[in-house]
Structures are given as structure tokens and as C-alpha cells.
Fold this protein.
Amino acid sequence: MPATKATKPMATLDQTPLPYATWQASARTHFNKAQQWTMPYRSRRAAGKMHPSHDFVFIYFRFAPAVLEGWHPGLGVAFEAAEDIQGYNEKYYTREGHALCLDPGKLDVKARKRLQYSLDLCRSVQDKPAQFSCFGMHEWAMVYQGGPEGRARHEGKLPMRLSQAEIDTVVEARPTCCSHFDAFRFFTDSAKPFNKLHPTQDGRMTNEQPGCLHTNMDLYKWAAKAMPWVGSELLWDTFEYAIRCREIDMRASPYDCSSLGLEPIRIETEAGRAAYEQEQRALTAAGKPLRTRLIAALEALLEQPPA
């Protein structure tokens, strides 16, 4: 029986599918590229020796490395597959002859609602002016007065580059303005009153803005949640971008990251704050086209009528 309008894949019958050899080469290239990050992470996890900067992207977002390694062309692209191939199951794909294609009619109500939230948040962030006055103080607020229960998050992994008294003085001298709930909730209780905002999970649409490093790192989260629909190229680009954001995050922190090859951005000084803002502005500019691509991909998916 021919597909109905509601279940018709975005790729049309007259579209020439990607030849098997072509997409297999792309899939291998993507897999090998991803494994340069996923294999070291797996090795460190097995040894119990995590990388405080790079592994954060895997641990914080909780997506299996296989999500990054798998190749998917995205909505509207058919590819030759004479036999069923692992990783391209009927939960997302429909077969037409010797070709497979993502079928938006298979998007269930729960997934549609979840992806609509991602789209709404990305649109909200994209339309706001960027704020550049936080200077990465969230990492300092997380270790204020010794951190939660007197323990810093990376205790035993990274030393501090300042004394606890110096860290506390910086936090007390510069009111923080963190707009991201998932960063703010890790502040110590005694540091939270210093923040100008009190962001909540329910207030993300109101508070999140495109100058925030954590909001920008979240582009990887929203892309991963939208897989395989948005495609592996966008997923990879948001992953690399999240790694860049996290490195700036750690460089501006009170931790001594020299063992990771990361030079400090000394935001406790005027020159350091200027350097941080310069990096923050560059990341914001780089994040805008990524968010635009993600918005376009989600719009293309969600404009399809539900099954």
C-alpha cells in the first residue's frame, strides 16, 4: 500500500538515493572522526580517570558515545540499502525499494512534544540580545567557601590556582549574573544570594540567552535529542562547539588547568575579564548559525503532519 501523506518520507520517490559506496564512505569517515573523542573517553571511564574538560560533554549530557559515532543523513535524504542494516531501524526509517529514508510520520506524540520544546527554546534564545557580563563566575560560585559539603567538584583531579580565601573574595566582590538553571543549581547555598537572577527549570524560556556558555553548550544536547532527524553533520558540529565552550569555561575557572594544556583566563583581573568577554563574543557568534541550522531542521520535521 502506498504511503499516505501523513507517513510519506520527506525524500520523494524520484529522488536519487545516495549510492551505497558513497554513504558508507561518509559513515566511516564520521565514525573514525567521532572515535578520536569517544575511545579516549571510554578508556578513561574504564580506568576511573576522567578528563575534567572534555569528558564533561559526555557526562553532563548523558548521551552514549554511540550516539555521536552513528551516521545519519538527516531528514529528506534517501540512501541505498539493499538489506536491513543495524542502526537504521523501522522506528525512524521507511524502506522504498532498495532505499531507506527517515519517515516523519513515525514521530510519536511524546517525541513531537519534546522536540517542540527544544524548538521553542532555541527560537527564544536566538531572538534575545546576548549578555556579556557574567565573566564565567558560575564556576567560582560552585566552589565558594569550599564547595558543597566542603568539597570542590574536581577535588583530587585539579588543584586550585588561587587560595580559598582569594576565591571567596572574588565571588563576594563581583555579583554574579548567571542565567542558566543547570549552572545556577550547582552554586553553593551561600553563593546563590550573590546572583542577580534566580533561574529555574520552568523559567528557561525567559532567562536563557545566547551569550551564555552553558546555553550554547546545550546546542549539542538539543541536537542529540533530535537524532536521527537532524543528521550527524549537525550533531558533530554542535559537539565540537560544546568542546570549545567547555574549554573556555574551564580556563576562566579558579582551577589550575595547566595539566590539561589549558591556559587560564584570569577573570579576577580587568585584563582577564576583557579576554573572557572577547572569547565569549566569538563563541556567541559561532553559535548563532548552529542554532539557526537546528531551528530549521526542527521546523522541517515538525511541520510534517502527525501520523
About this structure: The CA atoms of residues 77 and 94 lie 12 Å apart. The two ends are 16 Å apart (CA to CA). The chain has two domains: 20-107, 111-302. Residues 20-107 form one domain.
